Structures are given as structure tokens and as C-alpha cells.
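In this section we walk through a basic example: taking a raw amino acid sequence and producing a predicted 3D structure, encoded as C-alpha cells. The instruction is simple. Fold the sequence below.
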Amino acid sequence: MALKLEVWNGSGWIDKTDSCVSLRRQIRSNGVEELDGELVKDVVSVGQEIRLKEDDQIVFEGIVYEVDRRHRGRDVERCGFKAYDYLIKYDRHVVYRLYQTGTKAGEIIKDLASLEDGVDVSNVDDGDSLLSPWEIENQKALDVMKSVARGVNYWLRMKPGKILYFKPKQVGSAKATITDQIILDAEYSEDRWKLKNRVIYVGAGGEILADVSEGAGDLPVVVHDPFLTDKEEAERRAKIRLALNKEYGRSLRITMHQKDFKDLGIDLGDTCIINLPSVGLENENMVLLGIEYDPRSLRYRLEFGGRKELLEDWLDEQIGGDAARRFGQAMTLPEETSTLTYSLEAIARIQGESRYVKYWNKPPLTLYNVENIQLNDDGYAVLTSGATEGSFEAKILPPSEMFISFMDVTWGLDKGDGSVTITILRGDDSIVKQISGDDVDEGEYWFDRLPRREGEWFEGAASNWGKSNGDVSDVTLGILHPQNLKLTPDTLGTEMTAYYPRLTSFERHYDGSGSISFGIDRVTVDSFGSGDFWGYNDGGSALFIPRYGHKEVVVEVLDPGASKWRRMLMLRGSLASNSRFLAILFDGDASHLTLAWRKSDGAKAEWLGEDTGSAWDGTTPFYLKFRLENGVWKAYWSKDKENWIFIGEKNASDFDGDFNYIGLCATFHGNGKTVYSRGIWLDDERYFIPDENPSLDLSWAKYMRLYLYGDHPEAKDFSVKIRLHTDADNYYEGTINVKHGTWKKYEVLVSSLSQVGSPNLSNINWISILTPYELLIDGDYVFLPLTRELVRVKFELSRPSADADSPKIKFVKIGWREGT
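The resulting C-alpha cell sequence is shown next.
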């Protein structure tokens, strides 16, 4: 068999056969074809095209990538070289590609193959389709092509004539039998760390969807995919994983004569029956994965199975996840509208410590969506010659599914004689933040998120939550933190309410004058000598606290400013000036504590009258209480909070609606001031009245994220309500169907929440969670402007004239947190 080694010199092929003293050709299952050789008294150069012929048939063609020239002592000059087939030309970066769901694996291969001219893709099969969008940024085309091939278990080869082959591996159909009679030597090894003979796929809800094995099946690998529901798709993936694991788990290397190899008629990817009792293999099916060819000795060295340790492929698998998962058949996922759920398997991976990751776009900058921008000699982005305005973008889609939250964007720039505006955008062009003027000089922007400290609202935070008709406690059952919240209704099946923060207050002066001031242990409500709660519309002053269905309210009056008709403790329907109410007040000479009320909004106020209710002897401080008993609101007062004196009562049904607020009031009578303790008791639990209202501006928030675990006595799923309150009558509401017996992550689009009344996202005063059954809650950041999605940072550069010094953008960094 005649061999000929030829090199292209720019005008023709030069024969190097006579100077070639060694030559080895090898092909790896996940790599390019390689040709190693050595010349004496001759050379080749890096970048030259080279080819090898057998009997005038081209068996290899490629490019010289490495050259090693040596001359030692009396030895002749030698030139070692290493060449790769034309597939190596794809060892170049792809700036950006986005492949949508449903794109065939073969379509991706063809698209990337088009980066080089003259490549024949007629032998590229379609393969399976993408199950979700795949965005590629600044990755080597060859790495992407290998990943695609591994994901669908296909061979990727570039044969002479620039013919690209993308074909399925034929596993299990034996094409030849190899016995002791045709081998010169054999070497077999196993690595039980990598050898897996059984693959189990666990899908949505923990259901086992596929269990595929060979032989004893005693070395299993379990793959969890919380989105997988289709058993046929699970079995397809399991078979691919089993085939891949066979490559990694065991390795057989044999040497045979060229003639015997030719007689077998096998090639890469073919399955052979191995019958070599001398190394412990009898009638074993193994796949041919590598060939080494030494043309001078006319021997072939073949590799079956896998390499004991191919670090690069192993790392790809660990970092990239399940290789078989990216492609397959489309599946239907049961989801609530605008709600994404993720099962325990997906979120348990972020239970450990998180890490801070940065995407660093450094000189020479990578530019996207460029307009009138170029790179200068330093690799900085500047305006093109003659342009006064221009723009470009930097962007990133975090690759890890363990993503938690975007944290910050930082940049380095020099404004020169011009100005820079920075706009942070989502993939759909909606704006997250625009930065201009002097703010650009800060060099950084931190994304809004709440709470500011990860997990602050849930980790050991029960004391910061209020509750009604149930209990909120700290337990050690969290998925993200050592401690989490547990909500337990007083009566299972009846909604309880948990709300954050623990207490919220609203200041109202209905006649336009008044003040509320806070001391260490007291709060003073001052009407400035004007206003009253009477007639059809009120004019007094009050500090209102939301009532969440509480059945008992107690306040301590330190100084009533004892005067006639002074209103003090009040229950109120709304914050409107004409709202229904029920209040405890003094009568005309402050000798009695009595009741006043307005039954419906806009009605005329009434009262019990003079010398009604209960006599008051002038004792201060004293306590006032409202208690709901069997549908009747009863009022009391006490000197010691132990012995209560009855004042009066009103049926709750007399009023046109429930009471949503508790009021600490003052009116114009006397000095116009009433002083209360900052402690207030709701359902026999003491709360401390805050000195400021922690109003939240959530206008920037796009997502609300919670981790929930439902516990239903009949093992059923159930619904909980999440409300964002501007006040008691105006709020956003969403309903989440919580899974029983498993932690899940719920991400809700804030824009999908329904509206009750006229709430305002710029003024959210508290958050409430209503559940009829026991509920565990955990979380990291609840309100986020972005989840794991494409983030774009757009830089707009301008200068007053074409000859003015252009602004320079030196670098851009985008940081986020992800689980480890």
C-alpha cells in the first residue's frame, strides 16, 4: 500500500514522503482527527495545508498547527509537526448566536459550519430538537459543535474534501468480532468511578420515568430533571447517558496488522463483539472510539470503550449539566398562568453558600448592536471619525441554572469632551435603569432588590411578622437557610393572615392640621386644637394601624388631655374621612367613657349620650379595649389591664362592612392632645408602634419570588394568597397553588397580579400571606427587577463636534450571585 505525504506551498502540492521517518494518525470520538509526523532534513510551517494519501486516495487533509524543529549533536535536523483536520478551523469564537426552541441539532451544526467557506454539509443529519432557547456568547464554535454532538450522541467528523459528517452513533448493533487470532497485544482497564451500567431518570414530582441498564446494572447513576414528564423522552435520554457512560467507564486498547483491520471493515462508532478471555472480556459489545495509525509498521492501534480520565469532557459534563437534556422532544409543563415553579431537585443546589460571579468585558471590548463606534489602539470603545453620536451594548445571559440574582454593573470610562448615558435593558427592550449626568461618574449601579440582605425576611424572622387567626414561628426546615417561617392557622381550613412588617401605621389629619410625635415609650396625637370625629365627615387627627381580623385590641392611654367628648380608641372601615367607625370617647364633662359610631360610609355619626357607658374617676394611665365576641363588639376600660369595666357594645352586623383599621385619636377639645403608649396589644400579643411607616417603592419590581412548602392534612395541593397593600382597601393580589409535601420555587410576574381598589406599586405599605393550611416559607430576594435572563448594558456616547475628544468606555462588568 503506497503512502504519500504532501504539503501545499501556495501554488502546488509538494511530496514530503521521502523525508518522513514517522507518521501517526489518530481520531478521537469527541475531538478532531490528528496527524503527527517527523521529517528529517526537511521542514513544514505552521498554517500550511497538508494531506495524506493511501493508494492515491486522500485519507487525511488538514492544517499544520504545531512545529518542533530540533538539531542535537551529530544528529540530522529534524522537524516534528502536528496537524489537525479542517474541523480545527472552528476553534474560533462565536460572538453571539441564539437558537430558539425546536431548532434541530443538525441545523445548529450547519449554521456554525457556514462560518467556513466550501464545507459540504449534505451528510449532516437533523437529530433532535432544542427543548428551550439556547443563547451562545463568546464561545468557540468547535466547543459548541462538540456539545451538540454529545447531547444527541452523534459523531462529528470532517472527512477529506471538507465533507462534514454528523451521524448517530450506532450502539449495540455489532459489525465485527475481534478475537485473539487477529490481535498482536491487548490492554484493558476499568474505572469504577466513571463506569456506569445503569441510568435512572427521575422526573416531575419525583416519579421514576426511565430505568435503563446493561448487565448487572449494579453501578447506577440517577439523573433528576424536575421538568421532565414524558417517559419516552426520559428513556431516550437514559440510553444516551448509558452510551456516554460506557465511553468513560472502561477502555480497551488493541494492536493489529493493517490487513486484519482492513478485513474487519470497521470505522469510528461501530460496535464490535470483543472476545478476548485473556483480558477478561467474553462476548462484550464495545464501541470503537479511537484509531492510531502507523503507516511504516503497517499496524493499527484501536481504542474501544472510553478513556479512564478525559478531564475536559468530564468538566464539560459537570459544568454544562446533563448532556442529553438540551435536545429532545417538546414536553408540556403544568404551570399556573404567569407563575414558574421549580421542584426541590432544582433548588436544593443553591442550598449551600452562594458565590459572586462577574462577566468582565475588558479591552479589546466585545461590542454588540454597534452604531458609529470603533475600538481605539487600547481596545476602548470610542466614536468613529466624524461621528458626534454613537452607541453599543454589552450583554450577558448567566449560564448557570443556580442563578440567584443580578447584583451590580460597573464600568470604567473617560468622558473626554462629551457625555455618556448608560441604559440597562432587558432582552425585550424594557428599561431597568437609565443613568446619565454626574451619576455616570459613580462607575457602578446596584440593582434594586428586596430584602436588601438575602433571606432577611424569612431566616429567624418570625418576630418581625404579624399574624391573625394563626401563628408564625421559626422552624429549622428551610430549603435555603437554617431557619425559615412556619404559618399555622388556628383552625385548619380557615385562612390565617401573616403580614410583613409586623406593624404599619398611617398618619391622618382630616381637617388639614395636626401632628404625631414619638417618644421612647409614647406617641402623642395632636389635633392642633381643631377637628372632630362627628357629623357626616371627620376632621380629627389619628394614627391608624391596619387590623388583620384581630378580635381583641388593647391600648394604654397615658394622658387623655381630659376634656369633654375626646375620641380615643377607634375601629374604622377605611382611611376616608366619611368612613364607618366605632370609637370610645368621653362624654360632655369627661365623667364617663361611652361609645360613638357611624354605621355606614357617609352616614351621620351617633353616640350613646351623656352619662352613659361607664363612669371614669380620672385615673391615669388607663387601658381601653375592644373585643369581638359572638358577632358583638364590646368596649371596656381598666386601671391595671387585669380587671375590666364594661363600657358598651354594638352588633358587628349594625355596620355596613368590617373594620380594617385601629385608630389612636385626638380631637380639638381641651388641649387637643392625647398621649398613648407605643405598646399595643392585638389578640393578647404586644406590638410596638414604629415611628415611621416603612413604605416600599416596588415600581421597579418585575418578579416576586418565594419558596413554599405546603402541608395539607389530606396530602392535597392548596391555594394561598399573596397581597401587596397600599392600604387595607387597595392592594394587589395573586393566588399560588402550593404543592403538598415538597419545596418549590414560585416566581410570579408582578404585572400578572390582580388589583383590588386602586393600589400603587410606588407605595406598598405591607405584604400579607393568607393560607388555610400549614405553610413553610423560605426565600432569598423576594422582589427582583430581573431573573435569569438576558441583560443588556447600552452605552450612548456623544460629543459637541466631530473634532472634540470622544468619550472612551474602558471596561464593563456585570455581577450576579449564584449557588455553589
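Looking at the output, two observations stand out. The two ends are 57 Å apart (CA to CA). Helices lie at 105-113, 141-152, 231-249, 258-264, 311-320, 344-347. In the next section we compare this with other chains.
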